[in-house]
Design brief:
By secondary structure, this protein is an alpha+beta fold. It is built from 2 helices and 8 strands.
């Protein structure tokens, strides 16, 4: 079953499963995260070892200096965590996006 990319909030890996999360549901995919990174359009970005996020759905980021920072997504209770390694580039991508609007 195919899902519109715009409705996907993020992809996440747990155990050996990759899940595509929408606001209402979770779907499994057979792709690996590194394959998705190559296939997905530019508004998707890896934000941790286990997560690729849709930048169009980011609502806010709560900074946590000691560990991962929480990313709140629009119109859903779901949240994901951005690792310190990806935090700066995520902030930069979101700034660029804001300037384009």
């Amino acid at each position: 079953r195919s899902i519109p990319l715009d409705s996907i909030l993020f992809f996440e890996t747990s155990d050996s499963c990759i899940s595509a999360h929408t606001a209402q549901s979770v779907y499994e995919t057979t792709y690996r995260l590194y394959e998705l990174e190559e296939l997905l359009p530019g508004y998707f970005m890896r934000i941790s070892k286990s997560t690729i996020i849709n930048l169009n759905h980011v609502y806010s980021i709560s900074r946590n200096l000691t560990s991962s920072s929480a990313v709140q997504l629009r119109n859903t209770h779901k949240q994901v965590f951005v690792s310190r390694h990806y935090y700066k580039s995520l902030k930069e991508r979101l700034e660029e996006k804001r300037k384009c609007i």
